[in-house]
């Protein structure tokens, strides 16, 4: 898996919510990113997730889907 | 103002709440609280009784026999300092008998005192001289030929003050100040009777003793026995400017005492809310950097960082910055530039920088040095309590019964608060220290921690969860408080009661025996008022924010919030780190901690600032570095922060800064960051500033100019002029106008003004209609967010692990005499106590590596390598080594990693896996990265 700064940070965030049910974990990760990340970091993460696909933390992938959904 | 002398009422006030007692002094009626001394009652009635050994910062001692009085119905002439008032008491302070007694006492003092008043440095500022006049001494019948102390030698060893025992009257004020006020007990009275004399330690020189040079003894001395060298050199000051210290987050109030325009000394202000007349070696004495010849006083620019600096006028520099910033934006987009604010600057200085970024740059790329220290405090306390600030005032510790110090070293980092804490501990409060290293507080004179839990670095959350587990599973929860004041308790309690959080399960992780964890949890929950004080040993971890929330959970579960003596209290690092955060320095928050996505809040700012504001967060400092390296961030304005030295993984920071098209540094000195800059804008020291600082207890203090700006410009004017040059109208005539704007935009500051601060001395925010004189204790009836929120805090081990290759964990901290990266303190005589950073290592870890005390060693981590001198110390646990980061040469941050707190990106300074090997630079044949990094360091030390 890539260890780009945004992916590393996303993994660190996901680890904090691993004890949550998956849906709640994804919502918490998405909410955190929305509140604290510059949009360019968010775009970089989306690109990374799209490129790395299955290698990414599933809760990060779910969070990205939530972020994409709210942007539509 | 002319020289300001606070009245000295002779003895301290009795404890609050005592019933009133009415007495008469020389026929004047006065009502005072029970327990008040006759001396103090007389002073309050306007009657000054002669005194020498008494002063109102120290308990009565009763030795000088000058404050004798007569009391109707009582025999003899009792000392008024040690005699408490009684109802109906009639006191006479003047009679021929008293006059004769006092003259006799003074005669004896003067018979063994040098008669050099006219050439004495304290001439005109000497209580002995004053009292000789007050009692009407006209002759000394004993002569001056008998045995005396007049030939005793002066001890010049302390760099800031002299000790002249020939002038000592053995009143013990210095000895008592060292014990009662400072809590160090370095001084004593040696010998008996005529041989009695003040002694530092066991007859040592002051500089060799345990004296911490706080200056309490100097302030207490009624003669010139203990005298500032600056007074000896320059003379007695003749005017006072009240201002605020610019070192740590305690934010001590000082009287800057000047002779004409020359600063002679800094004297702690008895009226200062934070310090109440006490100080430390930095604030009291280490101000010489402000006029150090290394100061750069003119703007400088250069096209490339390899070019020589070129001095320019202010207009040229401002225009250059504005043009370059606009050029970058037009080529790379509006988000390609940003700024960093400084916690050493005033609220007003900081506010205008974030306004420049948001309104003139048109983005939210503003951050502050709190990013690398207490940003997790802001996050954690906001999530749980609803406000990004500590809960108590400093006075609160006097009501604590159990004090838990976590990841902080108050006697070194926050010494004036530590003195308050130690006083309470000597009164009987119980102490728990949670820290890998055995800090001084664990065992010091008259203080011993009930428990020292040497937690393994990186495992704080496992420990706080274990403490909470005991509280929940042993039914120690304050249900009444939780039910009335909090939410989400049940889900949290269910989580925390899980077996993996038990002390037995976490013992292997934290290294703390389960029975100790259980005992501490019980003490915290049931021992009366329990308070948590914490520092960067909590925040600078990959789970720093989680730990802050964990401590908040613990405080709520036990009802230790919302009154005197309790709370969750960050010991903030820098003088205005609280203020810089309050002022909207974070990229996701506008002033007053309101999120940029809040349309209603943004509208208020947009209406006043007349610019649309971005609703999404900007870049944080580490993100700025990453974005600089990926090319999307190219222009940075840095106000008073040395990010090239203070931020982790120096190699990464260095590369990021070198990749910028424009780096602007506003600072006092050419620091490590400025060496990579294209523009240097000279800043002002605290002695030149006009504005406010906000300390760790949310106390807003005035900073008043002691001298005009040496640069010809106030620091707050610079961002305003850059903004104007970029086409955004931003101007103020006076910093009070900036505070007016802050107050108009920020609900917690609506009642703050320079006028109010000048009237009240200071206020603690929130200060508004509901609390016009401020708020010492927060969350009293309800939390700022309404209900306190319990948040589950699962322990996630850090990625930074010790391995065979890197078997030790390096952790960092600071010491008393130096301050952060040392830019200020290295340019003062404080280098006397700390000439270099060293590596503390446990004897076992040293022995297996063949390291002796004083050996040069190489420290290698996954990110870099540096060299230090080893100090073998059993205060370290095995497997953990420790250093400070006050010198660029030490390169502590060459080896730290870019791991960071998951929520805030605060670097994980406290956990770096390293190997330590014996080897000098020459022997290893390497030039360490730290050495290379600091090779061009040119700071000089004021000698």
Automatic annotation (TrEMBL), chain A:
Pfam families: FdsD. InterPro entries: Formate_DH_dsu. This is Formate dehydrogenase subunit delta.
UniProtKB/TrEMBL annotation, chain B:
Keywords: 2Fe-2S, 4Fe-4S, Iron, Iron-sulfur, Metal-binding, Oxidoreductase, Repeat. It comes from the Bacteria. Residues 238-294 form the 4Fe-4S Mo/W bis-MGD-type domain. InterPro entries: 2Fe-2S_ferredoxin-like_sf, 2Fe-2S_ferredoxin-type, 4Fe4S_Fe-S-bd, 4Fe4S_Fe_S_CS, Asp_de-COase-like_dom_sf, Formate_Dh-H_N, Formate_DH_asu, MoPterin_dinucl-bd_dom. Its EC number is 1.17.1.9. Residues 924-943 are annotated as: Disordered. GO terms for molecular function: formate dehydrogenase (NAD+) activity. Residues 159-190, 203-231 form the 4Fe-4S ferredoxin-type domain. Residues 97-136 form the 4Fe-4S His(Cys)3-ligated-type domain. Pfam families: Fer2_4, Fer4_7, Molybdop_Fe4S4, Molybdopterin, Molydop_binding, NADH-G_4Fe-4S_3. Residues 19-97 form the 2Fe-2S ferredoxin-type domain. PANTHER family: FORMATE DEHYDROGENASE H (PTHR43105:SF14), RESPIRATORY NITRATE REDUCTASE (PTHR43105). In the C-terminal section; belongs to the prokaryotic molybdopterin-containing oxidoreductase family. This is Formate dehydrogenase subunit alpha.
């Amino acid at each position: 898996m890539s260890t780009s700064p945004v992916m590393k940070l996303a993994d660190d965030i996901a680890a904090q919510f691993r004890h949550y049910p998956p849906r709640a974990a994804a919502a918490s990760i998405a909410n955190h990113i929305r509140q604290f990340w510059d949009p360019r970091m968010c775009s970089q993460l989306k690109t990374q997730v799209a490129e790395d696909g299955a290698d990414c933390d599933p809760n990060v992938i779910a969070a990205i889907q939530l972020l994409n959904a709210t942007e539509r | 103002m002319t020289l300001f002398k606070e009245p000295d009422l002779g003895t301290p006030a009795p404890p609050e709440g005592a019933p009133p007692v009415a007495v008469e002094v020389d026929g004047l009626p006065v009502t005072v609280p029970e327990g008040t001394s006759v001396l103090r009652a007389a002073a309050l009635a306007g009657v000054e009784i002669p005194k020498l050994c008494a002063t109102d910062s120290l308990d009565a001692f009763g030795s000088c026999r000058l404050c004798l009085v007569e009391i109707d119905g009582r025999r003899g002439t009792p000392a008024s300092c040690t005699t408490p008032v009684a109802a109906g008491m009639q006191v006479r302070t003047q009679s021929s008998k008293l006059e004769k007694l006092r003259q006799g006492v003074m005669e004896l003092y003067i018979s063994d005192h040098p008669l050099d008043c006219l050439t004495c440095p304290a001439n005109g500022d000497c209580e002995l001289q004053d009292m000789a006049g007050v009692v009407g001494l006209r002759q000394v019948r004993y002569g001056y030929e008998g045995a005396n102390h007049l030939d005793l030698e002066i001890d010049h060893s302390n760099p800031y003050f002299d000790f002249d025992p020939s002038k000592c009257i053995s009143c013990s004020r210095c000895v008592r100040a060292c014990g009662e006020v400072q809590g160090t007990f370095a001084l004593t009275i040696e010998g008996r009777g005529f041989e009695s004399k003040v002694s530092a330690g066991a007859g040592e020189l002051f500089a060799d003793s345990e004296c911490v040079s706080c200056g309490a003894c100097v302030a207490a001395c009624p003669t010139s026995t203990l005298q500032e060298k600056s007074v000896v050199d320059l003379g007695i000051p003749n005017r006072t400017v009240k201002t605020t210290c610019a070192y740590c987050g305690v934010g001590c109030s000082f009287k800057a005492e000047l002779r004409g325009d020359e600063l002679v000394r800094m004297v702690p202000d008895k009226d200062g809310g934070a310090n109440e007349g006490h100080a430390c070696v930095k604030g009291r004495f280490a101000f010489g950097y402000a006029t150090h010849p290394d100061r750069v006083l003119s703007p400088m620019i250069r096209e490339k960082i390899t070019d020589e600096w070129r001095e320019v006028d202010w207009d040229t520099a401002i225009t250059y910055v504005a043009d370059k910033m606009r050029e970058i934006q037009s080529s790379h987009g509006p988000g390609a530039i940003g700024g960093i604010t400084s916690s050493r600057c005033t609220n007003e200085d900081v506010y205008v920088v974030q306004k420049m970024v948001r309104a003139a740059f048109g983005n939210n790329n503003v951050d502050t040095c709190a990013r690398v220290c207490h940003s997790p405090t802001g996050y954690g306390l906001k999530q749980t309590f609803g406000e990004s600030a500590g809960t108590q005032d400093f006075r609160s510790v006097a009501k604590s019964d159990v004090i838990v110090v976590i990841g902080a070293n108050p006697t070194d980092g926050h010494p004036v608060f530590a003195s308050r804490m130690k006083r309470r501990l000597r009164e009987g409060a119980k102490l728990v220290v949670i820290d890998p290293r055995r800090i001084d507080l664990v065992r010091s004179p008259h203080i011993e921690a009930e428990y020292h839990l040497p937690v393994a670095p990186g495992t704080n959350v496992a420990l706080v969860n274990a403490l909470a587990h005991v509280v929940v599973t042993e039914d120690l929860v304050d249900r009444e408080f939780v039910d009335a004041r909090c939410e989400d308790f049940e889900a949290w309690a269910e989580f925390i009661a899980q077996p993996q959080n038990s002390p037995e399960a976490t013992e292997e992780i934290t290294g703390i025996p389960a029975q100790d964890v259980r005992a501490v949890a019980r003490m915290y929950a049931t021992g009366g008022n329990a308070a948590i004080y914490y520092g960067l040993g909590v925040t600078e971890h990959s789970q720093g924010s989680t730990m802050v929330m964990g401590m908040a959970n613990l405080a709520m579960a036990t009802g230790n919030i919302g009154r005197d003596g309790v709370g969750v209290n960050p010991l903030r690092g820098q003088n205005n780190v609280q203020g810089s955060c309050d002022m909207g320095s974070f990229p996701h928050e506008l002033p007053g901690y309101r999120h940029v996505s809040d349309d209603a809040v943004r509208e208020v700012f947009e209406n006043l600032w007349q610019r649309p504001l971005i609703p999404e967060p900007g870049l944080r400092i580490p993100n700025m570095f990453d974005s600089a390296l990926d090319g999307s961030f190219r222009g940075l304005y840095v106000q008073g922060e040395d990010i090239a030295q203070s931020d982790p993984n120096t190699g990464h920071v260095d590369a990021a800064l070198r990749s910028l098209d424009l780096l602007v540094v506003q600072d006092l000195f050419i620091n490590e960051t400025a060496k990579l800059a294209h523009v240097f804008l000279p800043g002002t020291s605290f002695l030149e500033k006009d504005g406010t600082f906000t300390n760790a207890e949310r106390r807003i203090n005035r900073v008043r100019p002691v001298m005009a700006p040496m640069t010809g410009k106030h620091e707050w004017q610079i961002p305003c002029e850059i903004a104007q040059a970029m086409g955004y109208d931003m101007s103020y005539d006076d910093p009070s106008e900036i505070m007016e704007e802050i107050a108009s935009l920020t609900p917690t500051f609506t009642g703050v003004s320079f006028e109010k601060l000048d009237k009240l001395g200071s206020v603690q925010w929130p200060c508004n209609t509901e609390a016009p004189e401020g708020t010492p204790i927060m969350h009293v009836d309800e939390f700022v967010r309404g209900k306190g929120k319990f948040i589950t805090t699962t322990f996630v081990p850090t990625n930074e692990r010790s391995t065979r290759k890197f078997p030790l964990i390096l952790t960092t901290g600071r010491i008393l005499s130096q301050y952060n990266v040392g830019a200020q303190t290295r340019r003062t005589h404080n280098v006397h106590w700390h000439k270099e950073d060293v590596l503390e290592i446990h004897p076992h870890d040293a022995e297996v590596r063949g390291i002796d005390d004083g050996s040069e060693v190489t420290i290698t981590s996954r990110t870099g390598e540096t060299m230090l001198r080893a100090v073998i110390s059993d205060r370290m646990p095995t497997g953990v080594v420790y250093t400070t980061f006050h010198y660029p040469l030490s390169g502590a941050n060459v080896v730290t990693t870019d791991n960071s707190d998951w929520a805030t990106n605060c670097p994980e300074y406290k956990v770096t896996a390293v190997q330590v090997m014996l080897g000098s630079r020459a022997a290893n044949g390497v030039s360490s990265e730290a050495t290379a990094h600091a090779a061009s360091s040119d700071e000089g030390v004021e000698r």
